[in-house]
Amino acid sequence: MALRPRQDIPALTGARGPAALAVVAYHLPVDPTTPGTTSWFGLEPIFMRGHLGVAFFFILSGFIIHHVYRNVFASSLNSNDVKRFVLYRFARIWPLHIVTMVGALLLYAVAVLVFNRVPGDVDSYSPLSILANTLMVQSWFGIGSPNVPAWSISAEWAAYLAFPFLCWLLMRLPLLGWIVLGIAALLLTGTEFTTHPLGRIATGFVIGMVLRECEGRLGLARHLGRFTGVGVLALLLAGCWLLPEESLLPYTLGFAILILALCNPGDWLAGLAARKPLVYLGEISFALYMVHAVVWSAFKNLLRIVAPGIEPTAHLPVLAGTILSLLAAAALYHLIEIPGRNMLRRGHRPAPQHAAETGLSSAEARPAR
What we know:
By secondary structure, the protein is an all-alpha fold. Helix content is 67%, strand content 0%. The longest helix is centred in the first third of the chain and has 35 residues, at 79-113. It is globular.
């Protein structure tokens, strides 16, 4: 059975912003390299699980990529289609990845040459690391990144390279086969398999693909209630206090249901996420995710120099660091991400039958995606 006609899903774009802010909250208020005594009004359990924003991104990525390209690779693996897909995905992530890596390297050079301070993980700044990061293969081989969040970009790149072939293969499965595959990926979540970045992206990305295929065939989203999104979000937040910190499976299941709820135009949370401010925040979310660690590193170290008596993880410094990260993300989105993407894609515009690559989903095909 064919999928229902594709449609724009702005709520999925709007959901990306809060997910990116969750990662920011994980790295700023509870910065493990800057132990602090500031109380965050009891919200520390939420901040400590901000890294789960990456798990949400992985599932959402599989969902959106399958949403956009499912019909392109369902029946054949045309070499031109595969090349176009890989080029478009490369153009989407590489320019911003390189710019933020250069920013991290410049901070390293200043720390060593000016302040005679050597970061703990010097291997992440080695020539081998720089080469691996330039090729976006660092996490495949356990190599660090000058810009710490870039490990997930390397994992995403692996998923992009595999997707055309994986999609073509999986489209031969009956619906039951998709369901079994999704359950298997879900059960692998949080096991030894997902301790490696490639295992983590494999499970999340496949869950996203399965979710989109089942939604398309069964219309799962339209059977959810108006307040499903709010209810699931409340349970996810409650889990920050009730579940062990290492629990990943319940959150993964919750993220999957949340994505389905956001696909339901009648869902209250979907309506909120589709509002323009949140959609714009979602559009700059990739830039925010990639730049916040560089901005925070520069800001907190500058603060240590000019105001050594101020705790970097206090309320005002964290607020300032977050605002600076958002401003930097907006600037990079408009000055690097969009122009870089367009420059690399120049001369490779999609044919009419591939309009999905440029105009289908707001979470995938707007200027940010």
